[in-house]
Write a structure and sequence with these properties.
Strands 3-2-4-1-5 form a 5-stranded parallel beta sheet, with helices on both faces. Strands 6-7-10-8-9 form a 5-stranded mixed beta sheet. It is of the alpha/beta class. The chain has helices at about 25-35, 40-50, 65-80, 100-105, 120-125, 145-155, 170-180, 205-210, 240-250, 255-265, 270-280; strands at about 10-15, 35-40, 60, 85, 110-115, 135-140, 160-165, 185-190, 200-205, 220-225. The radius of gyration is 28 Å and the shape is elongated. A hairpin with a 7-residue loop joins strand 8 and strand 9 (about 200-205). The chain starts with 8 loop residues before the first strand and ends in a 15-residue tail after the last helix.
């Protein structure tokens, strides 16, 4: 469905996560020309607007007033007004209520245009030194309780690189919870104060990170980049499977039972293994090596 040409446009404008020089020319132009700017914190955004001499009026839009403010913003857009959505830092919609406004605009057939800008999770992983071809962004973990524990346990089997956000006052507890759940030897990168004067990337094990911050007070906002679990799948050759089948059959186990047992051990289809079992003749040697299995 094409957006309604008679409505205004919602611009999703990325803003710097620390260094004001990361603001794009396009982003500045959009903020200058829209009718309103929907800001998570008007005081914080006001500093950005002052720096770039932008005088566009702001409307506060944050997690505490989003339900009351949403209808007002949608009405303005239906009247043909253009609105720029900004967050305190980075791309709106990532760990902030911007998603709700974007979804409401999509449901109302209102035109939506993203204006790309920096995002801490992408900045963090690209400089982490951990694999970047596949990753999962979890944002902020639940603060406590069963929901937090379930989120941590779900990460135990995650093979992709994991990205989390964390505040300084909860960093120590999160590191300890990660050690308890993922193991203290798991590799982690603590990216702190990204793009700012005191930007820092610390790399090591979770255990070492805990030791580091035992006597060091965490400061600044953190992006945690964590190595996924290493699951190098073994390669089972046809000869190795046949050799193991022969050993099991020699022990008196039926072809069907041996196939079922090997299917559970190797995660290969039982039917495939059973077809191999049928090729084993009664006179075949039962002394073939099974080291490759």
């Amino acid at each position: 469905m094409q957006p309604n040409p008679n409505t205004g446009t919602l611009y999703i404008v990325g803003t710097p996560i620390g260094n004001l020089e990361d603001m794009t020319f396009r982003g500045i132009r959009i903020l200058q020309t829209v009718d309103f700017i929907a800001a998570e914190d008007t005081r914080h955004t006001g500093k950005l607007l002052h720096h770039f001499q932008i005088q566009t009026p702001q409307i506060s839009y944050h997690e505490h007033n989003q339900h009351q403010r949403l209808p007002e913003l949608i009405d303005k857009l239906h009247l043909g007004k253009d609105i720029a959505l900004v967050t305190d830092a980075g791309m709106p919609g990532i760990s902030d209520p911007g998603y709700e406004l974007v979804k409401a605009c999509a449901d109302a057939n209102i035109n939506i245009i993203p204006i790309p800008g920096p995002t801490a999770c992408i900045v963090g992983i690209t400089a982490s030194g951990l694999p970047t071809e596949r990753f999962v962004f979890e944002g902020f973990l639940p603060v406590k309780g069963q929901e937090r524990q379930q989120s941590l346990e779900a990460l135990q089997i995650e093979s992709r690189t994991i990205i989390l956000y964390e505040s300084p006052h909860r960093l120590r507890q999160t590191l300890q919870d990660l050690a308890n759940t993922l193991g203290s030897d798991r590799q982690i990168v603590l990216a702190r104060e990204l793009t700012k004067m005191h930007e820092e990337f610390w790399r090591g094990s979770i255990e070492s990170a805990i030791e580091l911050y035992t006597n060091r007070e965490p400061q600044g906002e953190f992006t945690l980049v964590i190595a996924g679990i290493q699951t190098a799948a073994p390669i089972f050759s046809e000869d190795a499977i046949k050799a193991e089948l022969q050993t099991l059959i020699a022990e008196g186990i039926s072809r069907s039972q041996a196939s079922r047992q090997l299917a559970q051990q190797t995660s290969l289809p039982r039917r495939q293994i059973y077809q191999l079992a049928l090729t084993i003749g009664d006179n075949e040697s039962l002394e073939q090596p099974v080291d490759d299995l």
